[in-house]
Amino acid sequence: MTPPRTPAPTESRGGQAIDVAYQPFIEFRTGAMVGAEALARFPGRSTAHVLRRAELTGRSEAIDLAVLRRVIDELQGDPGQTLPVYVNVSSASIPLPGYLSTVRRWLRAAPGVGPRLVFDVTETAPLPGATAVRRFVGAIRELGARIAVDDVPAGYDRVYAISLLQPDVVKLDGDTLRRSLEDASERVRIEAMTIMAHDHGATLIAEGIEAPVHVEAALRFGAAIGQGYHLGRPRCCPLADVHPFQL
């Protein structure tokens, strides 16, 4: 068997070597792969450390755009691949004119790619003001792409985030989901967010699925789709080589 092709790492505008790992989203009922998330990886370095430092030094935009560029190139090269791909966007990138203008330029030059993208807002810093968020939302929807909110109900004010972003997808935080197995207060937090997500017509995806018991918990909260090591680990490979349950 020919080993899967592994694209060479790209570089951000700041010169940081970046690879992209894809992790599948799996429908619990059927076991089918229904999408994938593109995750930044940094050869020889801790992902969490690099992302946090990038946010503190104002370099999140460069990382967000480097991953997006790789995903757009892959989707253009494989027009038959119709599953949605989630690309992370730091809340720190949202108000930057350069970020939004670059996204517009790239997607207008790649017809058909926008509807296959979901911009996944990660909130390790607070969201910017309402005007900047609405500008971002309008631009993303104009390009045919969708919006997800990450780490609900963890992070900053997720009620504010859901209200302002009006997301198509709400992703339940894996740590909170696992703690809810033992902690009633965590169950109440998740239930409140799931009600809000349903009221906004958003799809629920449960993150951090690491065992069958987590699948059962996710289903109880109304999530039909999950992501986590029990369903498939992130892999640095072409998107076409990503499959469910590659552990």
Automatic annotation (TrEMBL):
It comes from the Bacteria. It comes from Paraconexibacter antarcticus. Signal peptide: none annotated. This is EAL domain-containing protein. Residues 1-247 form the EAL domain. It holds the Pfam family EAL. The lineage of its organism: Bacteria, Bacillati, Actinomycetota, Thermoleophilia, Solirubrobacterales.
